[in-house]
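This section describes the prediction task in plain terms. A model, or a person checking by hand, is given the sequence of a single protein chain and must write out its three-dimensional structure as a string of tokens. No templates, partner chains or ligands are provided. The sample shown here is typical of the held-out split.
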Amino acid sequence: MLRFKEAVVIKHQTPYCSIYFGTNLFEIEDPDLCFFNLLSKREWEIEELSTELRDFLIDNSLVVKPYNIENIDAKLVKNIHFFENKQPNFGSDPVNIQKNICQKKVIILGCGGIGTVVLKNLISFGVKHFLIIEFDNVEESNLNRQLFFDANHIGCNKGSIIKEIISRFDKDIEINTINIRVNKVEDLQSACNDYDADFFVNCADTPKCINDIVYEYCKARSIPFIQGAVGIETGYWGPIFKGNFINTILLDTEHREPVMGSISSTNMTIGALISNDILEFWINDKQENLYRRKSLNFRDYTIEFMEN
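The expected answer:
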């Protein structure tokens, strides 16, 4: 049995049967509504479809095989429907995509304006295993842009507060926290070598060479990683480094000091874009833009892609 993906829309606009899916439009010449009447059923036994029509629907990623969500955590059901429409290959099961994400182990370095947003999004994707490296305590100035914290947490270590809050949200989420300041590769080796991570997210902005430190650590252990930062008028994220780490040109060689000014909207935007790239990587790691550094201009909302 096959059925249209949930997001597929079908209309008859004489003389065509029009199929809309995302930004794509497919038109089949259909003056007598033969295709429209058949496709309007939205679900078919294989033998109801001609080989040509079936291949067309499969090749253009318009259909899925039915799947069972009865045993899926209700918090994640919307994810399943999203994965159904995003899955790159016919026959891949969106339930299995979700199950794989739930098994991921992620290291997050720095839980500030960007790191807390990334953490919240990854939890919403279904990730249940984290190692958080955070040296800082909550300050009053953090409350304008950092999730999870409130005035009662001022003076407390960020990692311990996050662990407490997340455990109340979902007792099945495993969060390990390490309270160290990372100044050299050896610090990460001491903190992370016993953690079998699938992904590393660098959201720290100090010391100035932190990107180099993370790069060297993840390269040695072959852990995919991403980084990002926010300025006043621009923010950047990516690329995702993986495999042989050949795109070293995109490392931050200027080693600039972080700016003092920071607001919630820009931090949340870049944090969300980092999170989305991680999710896209887990769904389909063949997308070239995942391996390019992107810069977002907050004034005119243009995105610049930097070449490797």
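For orientation: The two ends are 44 Å apart (CA to CA).
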